Amino acid sequence: MKNMRDCLAGLLSKAMVLSLLSVAVAPWTFALAASPAGDAAKGSKAWSENCARCHNMRSPSDLRDDQWVTSVFHMRIRAGLTGQETRDILAFLQGANDKVEYAGQKAVPLAAPLPATGTGKHIYESYCTACHGADGKGRLPGVPDFTSKNGRLSKSENELFNNVVSGFQSPGSSMPMPPKGGNSNLTEGDIRAVLRYITATFGQPGGNE
Amino acid sequence: MKRESLIRTLAIGATALVASNAAFASPSLEELTQDLKKMQTEVDKLQKQIQSLAAKQEARDAKQEVGTANEWPQSDSLFHMTGYADVGYVNTEATEGSFTVGSFSPIFHFQYRDLVMLESEMEIEVGDDGETEVALEYLVVDWFINDYMTLMGGKFLSPIGQFRQNLHPSWINKLPSAPPGFGHDGAAPVSDVGLQLRGGFPLGSVRTSYAFYVSNGPQLVAEMEEEDGEIEYALDGVEAEGFGSDSDGEKTIGGRLGFIPFAGFELGISAASGKATVTSIHEGDSSLLSGEAARDYDVIGADFNWQYQGFNLRGEYVETKVGADTGEGTAASEGATWTTWYTQAAYRISASKWELVARYTDFDSPHDSQDQEQSALGVNYLFSSNFIGKVSYEFNDGLLESDADQDRVMVQMAYGF
């Protein structure tokens, strides 16, 4: 047992030294001259995949833009995030921390009805799967299951549209969905397209007709 | 011919004159007023459109500016205070129930651009005697060298395992207590003073994280027992709580490697190695110590975490081993080993704010009075993601009638701010 542990300790020591050397050299070799901007779509994915490893997901609307800066840099150290992941998550959180409309409040209409910039499937996979999952069942605790009968998709199309536009926190959830899922660039056409995709893919027949 | 052409020309000219008079006939004043109003409305619409476009362009420009300025939308220096606090109630089998002030732990962040950050956490507690105790949990200056490396110096939370560095804050810990052996006097190191290099990088589809450190290392505590008139010494514990000086001059090196092969699952391995010296006697006169030499000090650990929708399963193992005395010291000549491990399952009930938790821990120390086997069950209510109410019952099995053997009920309100 002792020999085995000594052997393991030896291997660990060597692995650490090798890893340290690799890590020390690689970043200098591939370091970029200037840090590229954060990508909100990638940020939402990194946010959903990393933060819940340790704690309950905090709502983007919990903090202001400047507060998210220090918080996300703090989490960069705690969670072992790369600089790019940090900027991506920050771009998502700063873009998604508008005040959320709660159940019963009226949604603010979009300024101008613009057409969709992509297919509903593409929009869903780019901006929604981080929390709702590719199967629509919800990847994070508190996120609704689109496939459940009499679930979220039993609402009318207009109500769902308003929920997406203004953000929504359901009574049983401790975290709201940010307005437009955190992507302020989504057009009315985008939202209608993604709702059609969600309803067609995950909705129960006759659910929200 | 000429005459016919002349007549034709005159006829065309006369028709054109009549037509032009009809075309340029003067409109009425009313018609002109309506036209003017229409034109004014059109101008107003155009002005609004221009303003809207200008505002959108301004917003786009601002976003572009922010995006290309190293994500820095504010001034160069930022200050942010965060932290957590908890209060509760404890009823232990052998004692009366008491309300408790768990701790108030403000965390201060000072940041200059994306270059440097100072992080510090205070730990303020009210003891059983009513005295307020203040401690510095950690204080580090982080230099963000590049996207993959951060060098931190100061007093840092031990990167051995996950619980101490990431899970101990009360709003994160799913039960009101730390697993036995992972507290301030257990098998897992708490904090250290030195330098630490940490970060993360992708290896293909696998995400990895690393933390390596060199530090002052821990100090050892001996205990003194009198038996048949003779005084005997034994190792009482390892104090790995971040000493500001290195009494034996022997540095400790260690770290952790984390692997995330797929989203939701993480595996980590940890190790530390160095020397440690007995510097005090528990509830005894430390001046009795003499000739203490540095002993071997080794830690190994492993941890995992799996998250699937509302279900979370995690576990952690840590072993701390101190070697035998190699010199002529008065303290214990024998070495000692502390081991602890826990596994915890938590389930967030679908479409509700309720969470169920179960944890099993087995802590073994060289002293029977410290050994503890614990099964804990808990129910949590998430008022919000960062404000949590917890109720738990711990089945504790230790040396008969010792503190470690007392079952207890705990109620806690934890708030991460």
UniProtKB/TrEMBL annotation, chain A:
Q: Name one Pfam family in it.
A: Cytochrome_CBB3
A GO molecular function term, named singly, is:
electron transfer activity
Please provide the record's keywords in A-Z order: Heme, Iron, Metal-binding, Signal
- Residues in Cytochrome c domain copies: 115-202
Q: Which SUPFAM superfamilies match?
A: Cytochrome c
Superkingdom assignment: Bacteria
Concerning InterPro entries, the annotation shows:
Cyt_c-like_dom (IPR009056), Cyt_c-like_dom_sf (IPR036909), Cytochrome_c-type_DH (IPR051459)
> Where does the signal peptide begin and end?
1-33
Spell out the Gene3D superfamilies in the cross-references.
Answer: Cytochrome c-like domain
Q: What is this protein called?
A: C-type cytochrome
Organism of origin is: Shewanella salipaludis
Q: What is the organism lineage in this UniProt record?
A: Bacteria, Pseudomonadati, Pseudomonadota, Gammaproteobacteria, Alteromonadales
From TrEMBL, chain B:
Q: Which residues form a coiled coil?
A: 29-56
The protein's name? Porin
Taxonomically, which superkingdom?
A: Bacteria
Q: Which UniProt keywords apply?
A: Coiled coil, Signal
Which region is the signal sequence?
A: 1-25
Question: Which InterPro entries does its entry note?
Answer: Porin_dom_sf, Porin_O/P
